[in-house]
Structures are given as C-alpha cells and as structure tokens.
C-alpha cells in the first residue's frame, strides 16, 4: 500500500503538507517518541485515516494523542478517526464548548453537510501542557483566530506549529469566526515571535522560516488599525489607495484586490463587534 508522505523536520518531528486541490488543506504535524506518536491537527476524515494507517504500518507507531490547534472543521473533523482508535483528543480550554456550539455549522460551510456526530477534545488545558517524553509543549494563546487557539512548541528542535495564526498560501487569512479576537491574535503572534523558532509550520501552505510570523503580524496589525479607524469615522474599508499599499507591502497575505476586500469586510465586522 502507499503511505502518506511525511517531511522529516528533525529526528522526531515530521510534517504532512495539506492539499487544497484535494480539499485536505490543513497541515499536519507528527511527533514521535519510541513507538508512540502525537498528531498535531486532525484535518478531515480522509487524510486522518491515511496518516493514522501510515504511522501504524510504516512507522510502527501508536498514536496516543491528537491535538487540535482550534475547532474549525478542516482541523478537527478527522477527530472521529482518532477517537475510533482510542486516541485522546487535546484542545485548549474552551475548545470543546466552541466545537459543540459552532462545529456543525463550520463543517456544513466547509463540506456541505454537518457530521452525524462531533468529536470534541476529551482533554483540555488552561495555560500550557507538557508532554515530556515527546519534548512537546502546548500553549493556549486564544482567543485569537478563534475562541480557543493553541500553539505546539518543540523547544529542543526550535519547531513551532501555529495553526491558523499564520498561513503561507495564496488564499490569505480567515478573520470571519464570530469569536475571533484580532487584538488577541496580535498578542498571540507576538508570543510566537518571542519563542524565536527555527522552523514555523503554518496552518496552511508552505513550511516557513520565522519571518513569516513578523510579516503576518504586520499585515494583521495594519488591517486591524485601518478597520478601527474606519469604525471611528463611520466608514467602510473601501479605500483603493490603502488596498494597493497593502498589496504591495504584503503580497503573500493580501493576495489580490478581491481577496483583500473579503478579508477587510471580515476585519471591519470584528472591529464593529469589539467590546467598548
């Protein structure tokens, strides 16, 4: 049988790159320790099943935990596969409630149908959680991209999995979650930068160097400042000159005029809903 390709990042850490063309767009991490493995982000059911099988058959590894960086369907629908195998599902505190409240709608949006059953985290933590055997540290950094985000840090290897706090593909960011906290997102990115990672694994797209965090922070911060000022003026963000400036300064994040307009609309909504 064919096995899922894993890019080795260190002796114990690997990366499976998501594929939007196959509607399997979320990057997945694997951390090994002897004959055990922790998976970071479940993706959808199909890739989850293939990755789990590959780890078992090729690597002779038993998956003990699957970590969700946040509740969105492209990161968590594959939880079902791991739950069937007796794997513990890990999330930041609040993610379980968030998935149960919004997961069906998000799955419907992403796949066209809600699942018969949702599989939320069975294990949550409030600030941080250590897996000492794996030299893995999980840190809660939400609300940010969603209401309960986390990052996965391997300090010995300098490898950081950031979920959708940062992306490295041609489709930009998703600012539309009703519980997104843009100021929290900015703080979360600042915290990621403070860790000084050697390698950054974004939620979507290419394996990245640390500067992806700085550029992502700049884009989110500038767009947020523009949104706040627009709310103060009672305007929208339909400013062609400002849009061109963002496209020139952040081409990998602003993407295109049409996509930037969509992201600006979501950002403006977040600014309008910001607590006084």
TrEMBL record:
Residues 25-204 form the Metallo-beta-lactamase domain. Gene3D superfamilies: Ribonuclease Z/Hydroxyacylglutathione hydrolase-like. It comes from the Bacteria. Its EC number is 4.-.-.-. The keyword Transcription does not apply. Keywords: Lyase. GO terms for molecular function: lyase activity. Signal peptide: none annotated. It holds the Pfam family Lactamase_B. PANTHER family: ACYL-COENZYME A THIOESTERASE MBLAC2, METALLO-BETA-LACTAMASE DOMAIN-CONTAINING. This is Cyclase. It comes from Actinopolymorpha pittospori.
């Amino acid at each position: 049988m064919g096995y899922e390709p894993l890019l080795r990042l260190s002796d114990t850490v690997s990366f499976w790159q998501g594929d939007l063309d196959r509607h399997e767009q979320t990057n997945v991490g694997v951390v090994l320790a002897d004959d055990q493995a922790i998976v970071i982000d479940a993706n959808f059911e199909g890739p989850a099943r293939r990755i789990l099988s590959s780890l078992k058959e090729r690597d002779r590894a038993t998956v003990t935990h699957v970590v969700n960086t946040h509740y969105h369907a492209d990161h968590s629908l594959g939880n079902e596969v791991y739950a069937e195998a007796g794997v513990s599902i890990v999330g930041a505190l609040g993610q379980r409630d968030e998935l149960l409240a919004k997961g069906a709608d998000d799955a419907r949006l992403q796949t066209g149908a809600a699942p018969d059953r949702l599989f939320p985290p069975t294990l949550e933590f409030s600030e941080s959680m250590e897996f000492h055997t794996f030299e893995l540290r999980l840190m809660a950094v939400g609300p940010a991209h969603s209401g309960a985000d986390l990052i996965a840090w391997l300090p010995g290897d300098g490898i950081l999995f950031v979920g959708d706090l940062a992306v490295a593909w041609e489709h930009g960011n998703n600012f539309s979650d009703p519980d997104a906290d843009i100021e929290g997102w900015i703080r979360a990115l600042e915290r990621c930068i403070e860790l000084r990672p050697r390698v950054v694994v974004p939620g979507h797209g290419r394996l990245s160097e640390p500067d992806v965090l700085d550029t992502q922070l700049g884009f989110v911060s500038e767009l947020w400042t523009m949104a706040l000022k627009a709310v103060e003026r009672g305007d929208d963000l339909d400013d062609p000159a400002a849009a061109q400036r963002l496209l020139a300064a952040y081409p990998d994040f602003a993407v295109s005029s049409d996509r930037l307009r969509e992201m600006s609309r979501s950002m403006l909504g977040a600014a309008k809903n910001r607590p006084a």
